[in-house]
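S.,

As promised, the magnesium ion run. Input:
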Amino acid sequence: MQISAIDVFPVHLPMLQSFSISGGKVGDKNAGAPHVYVKITTDDGVEGWGEARPSHRWSYETIETVVTTINNYFADALIGVSIFSLDEIHYIMDKQIASGITRGQPIAKAAIDMAVLDAIAKTNHQPLVHSWFTKPQSTINLSYLISVSNEREAAEKARIAKAGEYKGVDVKIGIDPDKDLAILKTIKEILPDVYFRVDANQAYHLKDAMRLSKAMEEIEISVFEQPLAAGDLIGHAKLREFTTIPIALDESIWTPADVVRAIQLGACDTIVIKVTKMGGLSRAKRCGDIAQAAGLELLGGGLTESSLGLYAGAHLFHALGISTPVDLNGPLFLEDDPSQTKATIREGAVKLPVGIGIGWEVDKKKMDQFSIDL
Ligand SMILES: [Mg+2]
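Predicted complex:
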């Protein structure tokens, strides 16, 4: 069961709305959202599919680098390798694109890892989650993503989340402590009982984060995510000592070694599992297992992947026992994707496919329609 072909499909998917974080716009409605689909074909004719969703405002990987990394550095090196040798596949990818201060090009590697695991599960005629010895679940609860610049917009979005019956929100902050607090209070008044995740995407220095965390204790925020710069684990450890609000790390945690360092320094209560930043399903599972063994909580997140990446991530989050609403918000921003079974949100949850593999089927016509030349 060897890899006989790797095909790469860069696309721009139509968006319902633009999407910004504290670092800037990560998805532009006019330009479309950059996604890369990867198809791995085995010598037995099985097709495994994976997805990468790069954003140059979130990390250094771009749609161009994902495509050239896979086409120019991974594809030839992986032809002829058994799909069941996933560690060997990662060894080859890590040798081809060496690590810098963290794993090199994890988003590109994640698309390969996802496609290989899809192909393995299809070869074994079983759902993806059987690889982790758990049974499939049919839905996953989402947190509604709110990224706004004032209280009026915040109230508007909070009402949409309420009407959509979401069980959680993920509020992007990073303007300044006073404006952020006003936004959070507005949302909390409208949604007093939902799981309340606040994500600064590294926007703050320690003193401001301390001030804000004390105010957030008053309004019972559930978790404060990545308040400080990714490299500042000591600052996060100090903040964690200072506040009763659980501190989550996202951009600080890319590899199992990062999880170990965060544990050693007492830098967080929670880590955010994301399939693509961690180099794929298998590495993300390893990060989750290590964190849980050390008593940390897990949050589920994504980089606004389309249906393929959403389903794969959701299956992994269930296998890891993540029960809080997850940030897999592609359907909130994408108007369409090249999927026969497009993920749609109902009552704040997404229905998951229960077929073999990831359960995702390509719509070839749409893949052609959305394809771009680089
Ligand atoms: Mg985050």
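Residues 199, 201, 225-226, 250, 272, 301 surround magnesium ion (CB under 6 Å). Residues 3-126 form a domain with the Enolase-like; domain 1 fold (CATH 3.30.390.10).

- D.
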